[in-house]
Amino acid sequence: MRLSLIIPTRNRPSLLREALRSLLRQTYPFFEAVVVDDGEGEGLEVAQGLGDPRIRALPQPGRGQVEARRAGLRAARALRRGGLVYSGGVFLLPHEELPYEPGPIGEGLLRDNPILASGSGLLRKDLEDLGGLDPGMGHYWDWDLWLRAYRAGLPFRYLKGPNVGIRVHGGNQSYGAHLEERRRDLEALRAKHGLGPLVLKDHLRLHRELRAQGLSP
């Protein structure tokens, strides 16, 4: 099966190059990578400079991460039907690596978002049937999508193991930056889905909570 990987980027050419080179080292060759540059064009240069026809790049300057992903999905050529696949991963901190396993999905999804967006895959027909990505959800576009998939009864297929690496640095969207925007977007998510009170947290904090409960390594 051919896979489409959507990679939004903004003004981080060295990290993008590292991610794409890691992708090219994988043993599964049947993929396309759609890089969407939301910055000044550095991402386009990196993607084109690798010289692999499976990697395509397009500009989407200054539109934000959700619109970048929507543009990448429109340009994607692969994907069929089959539900949502998600996996475990590893947080790559400056001085340590922390394995992370989200575990099976259930009613806990109404309280926390354990799924790593970078380690997830939703087939195109399912995404279209769910209505695509909602730009009004901002930082919580992914949790909003998982909730819609869960309530629609789509299967969640868990691939256990460190299948994706998440490099944690000061510019990450979910780690310390944009706190007021995240609070606003979390309230929008809560209101849209009729959820109870939600605690603002990121996956690293959730990992620590799961590990304290003996549910993650």
What does this molecule look like?
InterPro entries: Glyco_trans_2-like, Glycosyltransf_2, Nucleotide-diphossugar_trans. By secondary structure, the chain is α/β, with parallel strands linked by helices. The protein has helices at residues 13-24, 42-49, 65-75, 124-129, 141-151, 179-193, 203-212; strands at 3-9, 31-37, 55-59, 84-92, 97-100, 120-122, 156-167. Strands 4, 5, 6 and 7 form a four-stranded mixed β-sheet that branches. A three-stranded parallel β-sheet has the order 1-2-3, sandwiched between helices. Helix 2 links the parallel strand 2 (31-37) and strand 3 (55-59). Helix 1 packs parallel to helix 2 (42-49). The longest helix has 15 residues, at 179-193. The two termini are 31 Å apart. The mean pLDDT is 89.
Mean pLDDT: 89
Q: Major sheet: size, sense and barrel closure? A: 4 strands, mixed
Number of strands: 7
Radius of gyration: 17 Å
The level of helicity is: 25-40%
Jot down its keywords:
single chain; Spore Coat Polysaccharide Biosynthesis Protein SpsA, Chain A; four-stranded mixed sheet; three-stranded parallel sheet; 7 helices; 34% helix; Glycosyl transferase family 2; Nucleotide-diphossugar_trans; Glycosyltransf_2; transferase; glycosyltransferase activity
